[in-house]
From TrEMBL:
Highest taxon above the source species: Eukaryota
Molecular-function GO terms, alphabetical: kinase activity
Family membership: Belongs to the carbohydrate kinase PfkB family.
PANTHER family cross-referenced by the UniProt entry: RIBOKINASE (PTHR10584:SF166), SUGAR KINASE (PTHR10584)
GO biological process, one term: phosphate-containing compound metabolic process
Record protein name field: Ribokinase
Residue intervals of the Carbohydrate kinase PfkB domain: 18-240
Alphabetized UniProt keyword annotations: Kinase, Transferase
Amino acid sequence: MCGWWAESAMMTSGGRCSADCSQEGIDVRDVAVDGSNVTGVAMIMVDAAGQNCIAAVYGANMACDDEQLDAAKRAMESADALMLQLRRRRTVSIAAASTCSQSWGARSVGPGTVRSDAKTGYAVADVITPNETEAAELTGIRVVDVDSARAAADALLAMGVGTAVVKMGQHGVFAATASERYYVPPFGVDAVDSVAAGDAFGAGLTVALSEARGLEDALRFASAAGALAVTKPGAQDAMPFRQEADALLHATNA
């Protein structure tokens, strides 16, 4: 069972998004409605190679506060994993991760937009998943290959992160803990649109870790989900189903 904790506005896009998620079996009871804000929106430009540039207005998401966090604790207390993207107030995201520290087996935090005060919150996360740009902003290390990704991951561990996962898009992913180091190469797919690839990766990683899979296995499952997402245009419509990720893994291992 998957739940969505967010805030939307009283407008068509917010209602449609909640309805679409509900149809997919996602619990949307903790999506609050804010009549004084617009629903968050991202304007995404995609080039001929499928790479994207995103300009976002977070809208109602930034209205999420401690009161809404308290209301969402019902779902959080019974959950196996928490996935945060920091597209709401940083203090609320950190409080959510801290609240779940005693009862959750895995907490996955993707940096999303990096802000000047973001570094102080990552020690509460079990896992963070920055892409090359985010990793560079957080660590000062320009990520261009596996060696530089390894250096960035080590720097993130030194900041107090338990597991650092540096995503390199078409070049794969590198992950590190205090005792493990893994590089997972990319899956060979025909890229159409890279929008939401990171979201699909984060979702796959969170699911796999909540199932107590080993880190390397979880990375492969997450990479399969991310790879499938780039084969379709759009964001929500590009999210792969679990059986699709399993099929890609099976075909690759065959």
